[in-house]
Amino acid sequence: MGKLDGRVVIVTGAARGQGEQEARLFVAEGAKVVVADVLDDRGEALAKEIGALYVHLDVSQEADWHAAVAAARETYGRVDGLVNNAGILRFNSLTDTPLDEFMQVVRVNQVGCFLGVKTVAAEMADGGTIVNTASYTAVTGMAAVGAYAATKHAILGLTRVAALELASRRIRVNAMCPGAIDTAMSNPARLDPAADAEETSRALDGLYRKLVPLGRIGKPEEVARLALFLTSEDSSYITGQPFVIDGGWLAGVSVI
Ligand code: NAD
């Protein structure tokens, strides 16, 4: 018995990183998964490997959402779950951030999450689940990621309101707030075939040893296990909540 037997779940940004690990784990737990991304080659290859459906979905485009839900229904007959995972990060001080750059981050992270809730919840079976991927920066500040942090704070607001509005249909909506996770977003060497990503990963462990009580960067597989918990019956009485998964980073600082 898998924890998601028979359930149909859409995972956005699933071609790589945390979304990829969520897709792999959900399939292993018996779900029928829709791998959604803008990286078509990578997403299609993953879907083929794990026995999932790939759809091209730019989360900032409402028409893409309607097409993705239609494809899920056509292939699997229903939709029971959504993981809003797709996201982008841009580094800049607020005073140097061009409006276009700010709006690009808003379009993907915040509007994408809103469109996912709006489009998929409307078509979702009663008793479904939505997991929104926020961030450590949804619950505290971090210099040089102002646009990103603003959108991640907004995702927590969307999560709480969606939980209230959808509770009458027993649709549960929660958010994950990962700290530093070893994907291309925090470890860009993972995108460079010539680079040794494991070496940069060890270097990042060195950096995070100073910041994170558990002394290392997190793994995408660890976030996937939290997404599984929030998508499965194991979290049946939980809705509207942010879940921090950060190795203790947010707990505070040590002065000795
Ligand atoms: P990643 O960059 O490896 O993966 C992001 C995925 O989103 C990619 O597959 C990318 O193609 C996809 N994507 C980007 N724009 C898209 C769009 N418009 N439509 C559809 N897909 C799109 O990074 P990741 O760490 O796996 O990121 C997953 C989520 O976790 C993001 O929301 C990110 O903000 C969040 N997060 C990451 C970290 C971290 O340290 N890695 C920390 C906190 C939160």
TrEMBL record:
A Pfam family per the record: adh_short_C2
InterPro entries, per the entry: NAD(P)-bd_dom_sf, Sc_DH/Rdtase_CS, SDR_fam
Molecular function GO labels: oxidoreductase activity
Keywords: Oxidoreductase
SUPFAM superfamilies linked to this entry: NAD(P)-binding Rossmann-fold domains
PANTHER family xrefs: 3-OXOACYL-(ACYL-CARRIER-PROTEIN) REDUCTASE (AFU_ORTHOLOGUE AFUA_6G11210), SHORT-CHAIN DEHYDROGENASE_REDUCTASE FAMILY PROTEIN
Family, per entry: Belongs to the short-chain dehydrogenases/reductases (SDR) family.
NCBIfam families, per database record: PRK07231.1 (NF005559)
Protein name per Swiss-Prot or TrEMBL: Short-chain dehydrogenase
Source organism (scientific name): Streptomyces viridochromogenes
